[in-house]
Amino acid sequence: MSKNLLIVGASRGIGLAVAEFYDAKGDNVISVSRTPPTVGKWIEADISIPNGIEKVLDTVSELAIDGLLFMGGVWEHNAFTEEYDFERTSYFETQTVINVNQIAPIEIVKGLLDNLRKAENPRAVFIGATSGLDSSTTSEVAYSASKFGLRGAVHSLRISYKNEGIGFTTINPGLVGTDEVLADIESGELAGIIPIPVEDIVRAVDFVMQSNKDTDLGDITLTQKHES
């Protein structure tokens, strides 16, 4: 039976790979992004602002949602490179990172709870980052803060709704081999890093989606390797 999947950040990177995977399986993919996706029914929305979040929620207001797959995320200018400079980050940049990575997923979950309750085995899966772990070694301040906050929010949601059968999971990868990251590696900005294949993130998402409704899956962490 096909599933209704709301995929946030579906026009590129991890979100696009996840959207393509489920579209190929025949599921009903609803793609949320600012730019046109290549698959799924498109909801054009900027989730960094309240109106964008409201548009998403209004569009799916009556639909049972089997999976909220929050695959979107943003970071500071020059993040993960030697050019990153915390002291040059603007208030607007910090606000945007927090809005997209932390506030938007919280507000979207809040608005989708009734949609998730209509599904047989509802799951909400969020892309976190190793930057949001206690062992983080990254210096990007707003990005790390947003991912720490996201993990905290998801932990609280698991506690709050553990008796309602809604699963909440955060997948925390290191650097993933998206087009952007591969370009940075090729340019030498991320020399020596062996990124996580995007396909492994898709497999992790699908592992969560295929799991029994009584299985509680919290944090899943994947790390990249470095050339020796």
Give a quick rundown of the structure.
Helix content is 40%, strand content 17%.
Structure description:
- The chain has a single domain (4-226), classed as 3-Layer(aba) Sandwich (Rossmann fold), CATH 3.40.50.
- 40% of the residues lie in helices and 17% in strands.
- It contains six helices and nine strands, in the order βαββαβαβαβαβαββ.
- The protein has helices at 13-25, 50-59, 91-117, 141-160, 179-187, 198-210, and strands at residues 4-8, 28-33, 41-44, 67-70, 123-127, 167-173, 193-194, 219-222, 225-226.
- The chain has a seven-stranded parallel beta sheet, with helices on both faces.
- Helix 1 (13-25) links the parallel strand 1 and strand 2.
- The model has no long low-confidence stretch (mean pLDDT 90).
